[in-house]
Design a protein that fits this description.
rod-shaped, two-stranded antiparallel sheet, single chain, about 190 residues, 2 domains
């Protein structure tokens, strides 16, 4: 009767360590940390993974090193919310500017730009700045910046301000009279992403 078994000394490696290293304990590798620089491509999203070949753990018995996998996590931004390649910015204007029209400065990824707010702008109107969003990781082109217009209602009014508003409260042009063109929020959002 014959049996075949793995060598208990070399464990099938074909060679054995006779003088064990006191640093690596005969494994041929030591535990160490390394700081490396990585290039993050423009437009990456949270949850994406980047791979660096050969920067992982050392291979067994002198084998090649593994890969380092880097998972991207995004931090919230002070001015922008991300929606894919598009970025959204909330812009607050007062009632007089919404009724009469104005120009406002808004931040973009490339610096501040002036945006014209037309007269009779309703709360929730979305203005689009073409190509001012984030670049695509895998394709060419950039997303858009969407500016969501919010009408700021003052919290503390002086007696004079209250008197002016009381005069305007019942004026015919101040009564809500929405038309079919004054779309609801969901219809506007649906149009933006078609």
């Amino acid at each position: 009767m014959q049996t075949t078994a793995v060598c208990p000394t070399c464990h099938g490696a074909g060679k054995s360590v006779t003088a064990t290293c006191h640093v690596c304990k005969g494994e041929g590798v030591t535990h160490d940390a390394e700081t490396i620089d990585i290039d993050i491509p423009a437009g990456v999203e949270g949850g994406m993974q980047l791979s660096m070949r050969g920067k992982g753990n050392a291979g067994k018995s002198g084998g090649p090193a593994g890969d380092l996998l880097i998972t991207i996590e995004e931090q919230a931004h002070d001015h922008f919310t991300r929606d894919g390649m598009n970025i959204i910015h909330d812009c607050y204007i007062n009632f007089a500017d919404a009724a009469l029209g104005t120009s406002v400065e808004v931040p973009t990824l490339d610096g501040r730009v002036k945006v014209k707010i037309p007269a009779a702008t309703q709360a929730g109107k979305i203005l689009r700045l073409k190509g001012k969003g984030l670049p695509s990781v895998q394709e060419y082109g950039r997303g858009d910046q969407l500016i969501n217009i919010n009408i700021w209602t003052p919290k503390d009014l002086t007696a004079e301000e209250k008197a002016i508003l009381e005069k305007l409260r019942h004026a015919p042009n101040f009564q809500p009279n929405p038309t079919k063109e004054d779309k609801g929020f969901f219809e506007r959002m649906k149009e933006m992403f078609q």
